[in-house]
Amino acid sequence: MTTTTRYSEAFKRKVIQSIEEGKYNQTQAMKHYGIKGSVTVRGWLKKYGKNHLIGKIVRVETDNELNRLKEAEKKIRELEKALLDVTIENVLYKSLVKVAKRDLNIDLKKNYGHLVSKNPEEL
């Protein structure tokens, strides 16, 4: 049967302080303080250590920045939807050109290609 050892907050902070001051590394601290779990001290460092935010991006934003960010994300979603619509429309037109050539023997690219390059709305 395994036993679970519970450590007090003060003890955890003492261990972390000794590591941060350079007195011990993680392994040495485990041996010195009689800590059995290999992941235990690492977890304490993340939770209580001064350097637990190193390597992470911490960003403080004002309400104005949050609003601008939300508006930008909304605009991105709208543009992605518009791009999808135009892509579908493009596939539809390409299919129409292929069908016209295959079934009606009309080469729309050859006959009307010069108009499309000028203004596609006039067709």
Q: Would you summarize the structure shown here?
A:
The protein is mainly α and 123 residues long. The protein has five helices and no strands.
Largest beta-sheet details: none
Q: How many structural domains can be distinguished in the coordinates?
A: 2
The helix fraction, in percent, is: 55-70%
Low-confidence stretches: none
The rough form would be described as: elongated
In what range is the share of β-strand residues?
under 5%
Total number of helical segments? 5
Average pLDDT figure: 84
Termini separation comes to 82 Å
Reading the helices and strands in chain order gives HHHHH
Oligomerization category of the chains in this entry: single chain
Radius of gyration: 33 Å
Structural class of the secondary elements? mainly alpha
The count of DSSP E runs of length 2 or more, i.e. the number of strands, is 0
Structural account:
The protein is mainly alpha-helical. The chain folds into 2 domains: 9-48; 71-122. Helix content is 67%, strand content 0%. The chain is built from 5 helices and no strands. The chain has helices at 9-20, 26-33, 40-48, 63-104, 108-118. The longest helix has 42 residues, at 63-104. The protein is elongated. The mean pLDDT is 84.
